[in-house]
Every structure is written in C-alpha cells, then in structure tokens.
Design a protein that fits this description.
Elements (H helix, E strand, L loop, with lengths): L2 H7 L25 H8 L3 H9 L6 H14 L5 H6 L6 E6 L5 H16 L3 E6 L4 H13 L4 E5 L5 H6 L7 E5 L9 E4 L1 H14 L5 E5 L5 H16 L9 E3 L4 H14 L6 E4 L2 H13 L9 E6 L12 E4 L2 H16 L9 E3 L2 E3 L15
Parallel strand pairs: 1-2, 1-3, 3-4, 4-5, 5-11, 6-7, 6-8, 8-9, 9-10
Antiparallel strand pairs: 10-12
Helix pairs in contact: 1-2, 2-3, 2-4, 6-13, 9-10, 11-12
C-alpha cells in the first residue's frame, strides 16, 4: 500500500459527517498528526521515524523517502514539549520586552527574531507593560514552555531580577538596554557617547541655550545619555542649565507634555532641545507646531534612536542612531552561543551610535560661520 493510500485510509469517505444524533453540532477540529501516524503511513516503526527526523542513525534511502513523504503529507512536526520532558533542547527562545509596540523595541525584536530564524530557533515574545507583577508572570509562562534561553529587554528588570534568575541553572540569558552586570552579558549602544555626539553637534551649530527632555530617573540608558550630553557641554565651556532639564516619560505623550511645560515656564525660549528618544522628540515637534514655532527656524530639535518614523517627520528629524538591528542580531548570536555550549557569562557589548543629520537642526546665534 502506498503512503498516500495509508493516509487516505485514516479518513474514509463519510468520516466526520453528521448523523441524526449529531446533527447541528460543530465539526470536530482535526487532530494534529503524531509520530505513530507517520510510522503507520510509512509502514515503519516509530523508532525509524525518529531516526529519520533527528538523523541519529543511518536509514536506507527508500525508507527515508517513504518517511519523509509521510511527514510532508501529514504535516507532522515533533513535539517540543515531548523533547523538553526528555531534557532535550526545545529550539525555542523567550524574550521579555516592555512593549513590542514601541518602535525601538520593535526594531530590536525584529533583529533578534531574524537571527533566531536563521539559526533554527523559534522566538516566544512576552510584553511586560513596565509592570513588575506582569514581568514575573510572563517569566513563569516562558519557563513553563521549557525555553532554551531568554532575552530580557524591559525597563523594570533590575539587578535583583537578574540575580533571582540564577536559580534556573540551565537557563541561558542575555540582556538588552540595561546597565552592564556580572550576572549576564548585556548588549547596548554606547549611550554616553551618543549623548556626547548630540551635544557636540548642537555646540558646533552655534547653540548655547539648550533644553533637555530627560527620561525617568530610573531609566539607566537615558541617564547615561544625559551624563554624556552634560559632560560634553561642560567640556566645551557651556554647562547645562539645570532649569532647562525636564524629566518625562519617553513616549509621544511624555514628549508633548514636557514641551508644553517648558514653553509655559521659560520666559526666554531655548534655542534647541535634545530628547532622550525619538518618540519624545516627535511629541515635542507636535507641540512646537501647535504653538506656531517652526523647526528649525525658531527652535532646533535632536532625537535619539533613529526609529523609522524619524525620517518621515516634518521636518525630518536629526537624531543619534542606535544600531537596532545589530543589537538584536548580536543579542541572539550571544544567546544561541550560550545555549549551544559557550560558557556564561560572555562579554557585554556596547555598539557605537551614529549622528544622522536631517533637517530639524539649524544654526544658533553663536555659529561662527553665520553671516
């Protein structure tokens, strides 16, 4: 009997049809095929199917052909849960993120997923919503899925959280967008350098009265950017005016809210604004436009991250680019290396940011080349 005939024999004509007693019921969902179904269709043992699928023992070419034909026709996939129960790798990676709707996070996630796919791993994504209770619940969910490794990119995962993860001895971990630590390798951009890049660009363009939309005080990467920005201003002989620093959430609404407050409180309007991320900068740009201020004629604006929308603002946003795709690729590569036998922890990585000049920065009163 051919493989196709054996498969057809499992679903004879009329199977699943309604009888008088079952009339009106919803049809039953088809069951997922099992390894026993593949063995029956191919006319071989379950052990032989396992050897063909996992390439654990030589199998005669004709037998391989029959097994692979049955696998293709049945749409069989091995159970990761069954592998996990045997203590085998499941080929799955978990990822905890604050919010996958944030463009920066989304671009990093894309890089992680792309590299996982290329290496034969599946990615399970969980949002934490910047909530510690939800973070712990999502971690529990991922551990129940028997993941091989974990990528953590969430602002509410502090050092204590990573230390607590030590009790899961077989779990390999990489962190993104947090402070470096001994517990796990961390993949970041060099935020201090990025802040300094923004400061030097504004100083070179002749700006001296510069406001900053800083992130929350608990946001480690934003604090690094602020420190780099402040240090570069001081090195140039133009220290940051503390009254021009506005702490806010690094969101569209946060940027808009802080900009309204800045314009209401400052009798002398700043010449430029540096925002700790592009979302806050887009929010600021919206409010400036509402108030009749033209960027960069009346005030200049610099963001951070270089998310996709930055190039499509009006005017297009000058920003400091984080290499989001490279961050995602590097994190996935480090994690997979750990899963496949590298010692933990491996070295942390700080990738170089880059100034992307567009049209939101003009020239300030102190620009030496100004006519």
């Amino acid at each position: 009997m051919r493989v196709s005939q054996r498969i057809a024999a499992r679903c004879p004509d009329g199977a699943g049809g309604e009888d008088a007693e079952g009339a009106g019921r919803q049809p039953a969902l088809p069951q997922m095929p099992t390894i026993k179904d593949v063995a029956r269709a191919a006319g071989v043992s379950v052990t032989t199917v396992s050897h063909v699928f996992n390439e654990t023992r030589p199998v005669a070419p004709e037998t391989q052909r029959r097994v692979k034909a049955a696998i293709d026709q049945l749409g069989y996939y091995p159970s990761n849960l069954a592998r996990a129960l045997k203590g085998e790798p499941t080929g799955t990676v978990g990822m905890l993120v604050t919010s996958s709707t944030n463009p920066f996070f989304a671009e990093v996630i894309s890089g992680v997923e792309e590299r996982c796919y290329e290496r034969g791993y599946s990615l399970i994504l969980c949002n934490t919503g910047d909530d510690r209770q939800r973070l712990n619940a999502q971690l529990k969910t991922l551990l129940q899925k028997r993941i091989d490794g974990l990528v953590v990119m969430t602002t509410n995962a502090d050092l204590r959280f990573f230390k607590d993860l030590r009790r899961y001895r077989g779990l390999r971990i990489v962190a993104i967008d947090t402070e470096e630590m001994d517990e796990v390798p961390v993949i970041n951009d060099d935020s201090g350098s990025g802040g300094a890049i923004a400061a030097r660009h504004l100083i070179a363009r002749g700006f001296r009265r510069i406001a900053v939309l800083a992130g929350p005080k608990a946001h480690p990467r934003a604090l690094r950017r602020l420190a780099g920005f402040r240090d570069a201003l001081e090195a140039a002989g133009h220290p940051l005016d503390p009254t021009l620093r506005y702490c806010t959430e690094l969101t569209l609404a946060g940027g808009a809210r802080a900009t309204r407050k800045l314009l209401a409180e400052q009798a002398l309007r700043p010449e430029a604004i540096f925002c700790m991320n592009d979302l806050a900068a887009v929010g600021a740009l919206h409010v400036l436009s509402e108030e009749g201020l033209e960027v960069p004629r009346d005030i200049s604006l610099v963001g951070y991250d270089d998310i996709e929308i930055a190039a499509y603002c009006r005017p297009p946003l000058t920003t400091v680019r984080q290499p989001t795709e490279e961050i995602g690729h590097t994190a996935a590569e480090r994690l997979i290396a750990l899963v496949e036998g590298a010692e933990q922890p491996s070295e942390s990585v700080a990738l170089a940011p880059q100034l992307i000049e567009r049209s939101s920065v003009g020239y300030g009163p102190a620009w030496e080349g100004k006519a």
